[in-house]
Amino acid sequence: MGDVYLLDYGAGNVRSLVNAVHKLGYTLKTIDSAADFDKAEKILFPGVGEFGHAMRSLEAKGFVAPLKAYLQSGRPFFGICVGMQTLFEGSEEAPQAHGLGAIPGRAKCFDRTTKTVPHIGWNRLDVRKALPQDPSGAQLANTLGVDETERYYFVHSFAVPFDEVQHRPFVLATTRYGDETFVSAVQYGRMLGTQFHPEKSGPAGLRLIQAFLAADPTAPCILPTNSADVIYRQPTTQQSDGFTTRIIACLDVRDNDQGDLVVTKGDQYDVRERDTAAGDVRNLGKPVELAETYYRQGADEITFLNITSFRNVPMQDLPMLEVLRRASENIFVPLTVGGGIRDVTDPDGRHYSALAVAGAYFRSGADKVSIGSDAVYAAEAYWRDGQQLTGTTAIETIANAYGAQAVVISVDPRRVYVADPADTPHHTVPTQCRGPNGEQYCWYQCTVKGGREGRDLDVRQLVVACQALGAGEILLNCMDRDGTNAGYDLELIRDVKQAVTIPVIASSGAGHPAHFAEVIDATGVEATLAAGIFHRKEVPIATVKEYLTTRGYAVRPTST
Ligand code: 1PR
């Protein structure tokens, strides 16, 4: 068997794809020089980040011409996400950059006025069909085996709008997001591509990678001769409902008093046992093992938060790097890591930028980083300095290098009650849960250092600033509800959801499957996160999904 090569231009998390290939029993070599294109029997091209960066990197390495020659030779190629987009002529994301031009069309940004952007989550495919009498039916085979009954994981702001005439011979599948239908998989001969991430799409995605790796690279492959014979089904209402809500399991991680790294869980951020004299840190399991359990149970995403990140931990010693490395070997859904994403100076005086810290996490297997305290400081500066973008904040530098979708803002707000909105300069909401003195309004104060310090910034100011700085998603905790099992803070979440156009993850307070449905209905959030009920085995993830499914919500089936 010949060699499978990875074409990596050094952006984002390619470790997951490498891990997926290893998990399937194959090895990968990396393309280091133009000569490697001749040695490759198959090429995998994962693209993360910005289209222009991808093309410029290929050009700088002298890879554009050999890659075009490789594609023209008809040998097997599988481009993922931006790797697929580079097969087209270009992208609105980087108008000056030329794509490889193997397929007509250009990527465009989704319309932000009609839906949240980026498109982050699990969605369905609508796979092309060949007319039965078409003698080229075999050529139009779905080599990857993309499956209309499955859901696959997407994370992108730009996509190639589907044009039935222009794309007829090339497009294997389309996907509907809100009011737009875009190209989600291409196949032309042995040239394959997916806009979604198969390496992040659980068992369904691994099956596609397996199909690519196992396919005979010399099997006959005749290109479509009469592209008019390819047919596409018109999107239906049902297909447009393919985008699912995400159920995220969150693991708060820290050292316990014996020095072991454990998953813990607080009540309103207090993680120490209340019924023991010693007040030990609650130990609910080992991070990697627990995360693997949640993956098997159907979690759509897993978030690790290093909750003692306010302490200075040397870069060389970051325990979460090893957690990520090990978790990403066996978990093939998106992994987010938070805690300590900021500029760091080690005791030996070496300085690491937030971008370098994030880069270390991405290389270890993280797909997204979540920024807590540093985002609050950045938002304060944003409002103080006249809403200027300096390009120097952690949010901006990481989003510029890895894409907005890789930057989550973790918000730790708490309620401050007021009798009258005029009592505070901050944005207030009327509340059904009155304050201790019967106050009917509250504002949500941002905190830093895991809730230890309140700041003169409200949650609306924070999320609006972070979106302007380029964040891709909001993870909205609530200190008052954390660990209470009393349900999400709908007033907080609704207010934040209305303030931004990026996806919002509801967090804190889930105690029953009905709470998940309630927060989706009341606020329209794209994802829901819970910790305690999963860790204490009160409500398994599958039960939440069954509950939502029976009530008509689109969820990714647990079995896949
Ligand atoms: O400030 O960028 O270094 O990040 C620190 C990170 O650590 C932040 O994301 C912050 O939310 C988190 N963190 C710090 N201290 C705690 C703590 O609990 N003492 N955890 C903490 C935040 C909230 C969620 C929890 C949900 C759901 N905990 O992690 O999972 O509230 O819980 P539930 O379903 O049991 O109600 P930086």
Blueprint (SSEs and pairs):
Layout: E1 3-6, H1 15-23, E2 29-30, H2 36-39, E3 40-47, H3 51-60, H4 64-72, E4 77-81, H5 82-85, E5 90-91, E6 106-109, E7 119-123, E8 126-127, E9 129-130, E10 152-156, E11 158-159, H6 164-167, E12 171-177, E13 180-188, E14 191-194, H7 202-214, E15 230-231, H8 237-240, E16 246-255, E17 261-264, H9 287-297, E18 301-306, H10 319-330, E19 335-338, E20 344-345, E21 351-352, H11 354-363, E22 368-371, H12 373-384, H13 394-402, E23 407-411, E24 413-418, E25 428-430, E26 441-448, E27 453-458, H14 459-469, E28 473-476, H15 490-499, E29 504-506, H16 513-523, E30 527-530, H17 532-535, H18 541-550
Parallel strand pairs: 1-2, 1-3, 3-4, 4-14, 5-6, 16-18, 16-30, 18-19, 19-22, 22-23, 23-28, 28-29, 29-30
Antiparallel strand pairs: 6-11, 7-10, 8-12, 9-15, 12-13, 13-14, 16-17, 20-21, 24-26, 25-26, 26-27
The chain binds ligand 1PR.
Give a written overview of the molecule.
This protein is of the alpha/beta class and 560 residues long. The protein folds into two domains: 3-240, Rossmann fold, CATH 3.40.50; 246-411 and 451-550, TIM Barrel (Alpha-Beta Barrel). The strands form seven sheets. An eight-stranded mixed sheet has the order 2-1-3-4-14-13-12-8. An eight-stranded parallel beta barrel has the order 16-18-19-22-23-28-29-30, surrounded by nine helices. Strands 24, 25, 26 and 27 form a four-stranded antiparallel sheet that branches. Helix 9 (287-297) runs parallel beside helix 10 (319-330), helix 12 (373-384) packs across helix 14 and helix 16 crosses helix 18 (541-550). It is globular and about 75 Å long. The two termini are 30 Å apart. The model has no long low-confidence stretch (mean pLDDT 92). Ligand 1PR binds at residues 250, 252, 265-266, 269, 271, 305, 307, 309, 338-341, 370-374, 410, 412, 450-451, 477, 482-483, 507-510, 530-532.
